[in-house]
Amino acid sequence: MSTNKIFSGAFILFLGYFLSSILGLFREVLSAAYYGASADMDSYLFANTLPSIILSFVGGIFMVGFIPLFIKKKVTYSSKEASLMFSNILNVLMVVMLVLIAAAYVFSHYIASFFSINSETQLQIVRLIWILLPSILFFGLTFAQSSVLNALNHFAVPAFLTAINNVFVIVFILLFGRSLGIYSVAIGFVLGTAFQVLVMLPPLKKLGVVYTFRINFKDKDLHKIIAMSVPIISLGLIDQCGFLATRYFSTLLTPGSASALNYAGKIMLLPVTLFGTALISASYPSAVLMQAENKLKEYKQIVSTSLKSLLLILTPIMFICLIFAPYIIRILFERGSFDRSATTMTASCFMFLSVGIVLSPLKDFFTKMFFSKEILRIPIYSSIIYFMTFIISCLILVPIIKYNGIALASSLSLLISLVYLFIHYNALNSESKIRINLPYIAKVVGSAASATTLCYFIYLDGMQYELIKKLWIIYTLLCIGMSLGIYLVMIKMFRIEEINYVISKLLNKFTRRRGRLANESQ
Known about the structure:
InterPro entries: Lipid_II_flippase_MurJ/MviN, MurJ. The chain contains 23 helices and no strands. With 522 residues, it is mostly helical.
C-alpha cells in the first residue's frame, strides 16, 4: 500500500468529518440571511418536529443491535444470509414508516394546530409537513444502509452523508429562496435525503450486499434487534419529549423565538461536536478495554483524565461564548433578513445555552460509561430527571424571561441530570471513584475566566477607535484568539499535564481513521 494512497484515504475521511460541520454552519448562516428569526422559520422547525421524533426511534434500532447481529450472521453463516437479514429488517422498516407517513398525512391539520392557533400559520405548517414527510422514509433507508456499510468497515461514504444533505439545502436556498420562500429549505432537505440513499447503492453492491423483497414479522433476528433497542428507544422517547416541549413552549412566545433557540443551539453544538465528541470517541474505547481486563487503576486514570481533559478544552470555549455571545452571533448571522432584533434574541439564548458546551459532553461521557457496564436504568432515570426539571423550569421561567427561560431551563436541567449521573457513577464504582480536585477546577476555570475577561476589556477599549470599528470582525476574532492564547500560556504556567493528553488523543483519533481507510482501500 503506497503512502500517497494512505494519506489520500485519510484526507477523504477527515474532510467528510469537518465538511459536514462547515456546511452545516453555512446552511444556518444562509437560512438566517434569507429568513431570519421569523414566523416562516418557526413554521419549518415545527413541521420538522414529527419527522425528527420518528427518526430518533429508527436511529435507536440501528444504533445498538443491527451491526453486531449483521456481522455475526455474515461470519457464522454467509454473506447471503446477512443480506437476507438486512433485506427483511429493511422491508419491515419501510412498511412501518409508510404506515406512519400515511397517518401523518391524514392527521397533519391536527398536528399543525398543536403548534399554532393562527389559521394562516397552520396552513403553512401543513404544507411543510406534506413536503417533509417523505424524508422519514429516505432517512430510515439511510440509517439502514449506513449501518451495513459501517459493519463492513466502509466509512468513507457515510462520512459525507450530512455534507450531501447540507449541499442540497444550500443550493435550493440560493436558487429558490426568494421565489419559494421557506419551502425551498424543505424541498432541498427532502431531495438531499433521497440522494443520500442513491449514493450508498454502489458501495453496497460492490461489497456484495444483495437486496431481496422479503418480509417476515416473526423473524428471530428482527425480534432480537427490537429487544436490544428498547433501552435506547426509551432514552430517545424521553429526549424527544424534551424536544417537543421546547417547540411547544416556543409556540407560546413571539414569532421567531423557536428560530432564535434553534440557531443558538446549532452554534452551541459546534464545539461540542468538534472537540467534545472527538475526545470522548478517542478515550471511550481505552476505558472499556481497561474495564474488560479488570485493570481498575488504569481504568480510573483514563476516566479521570478524560473528564479533566474535557473541562480543560471546553471551559475556555464556554467562557468565550458567554462573554462574546452578541458579537459571535452578529458575525455569523446579522445580514439580510436577520436583523438586530434577531441578533439580540439569538445572542441571549446562546449565552444561556453556552453552559452546555461543557455539560453536554460530560453527560454523554457518563452515559456511555454506564452503557459499557450494561447499566441502562440510571441513564434512563437521568433523562427523566432532565425532562421533568426542564418542564418545571419552563413553567416558572418562560412567563418571566420568555425565550431565555427555555434556554436557561435547558442548561439547568442538563446540570441537574449530570450531577445525578456523577453521584450514581461514584456510588456504583466504590473502588474507582472519580475525584477531580478543587485546585484543578480553580486553575482551569480561573485561567479561562481571566483570559476571556481581560480580552473582552481590551476589545471594548479598542472599539472606541473609528479605524478599529471599521475592521470590527477581524478585531473580534483577534481578541477571541488572544484569549485562547493567554489561556494556553496560563495552563502551561500551572503545569496542567492533561493538555498533552488532549493533543495526543485527538491526533490518535485521526491516525486510527487514517489506518481504517488504508485497510479499506487495499
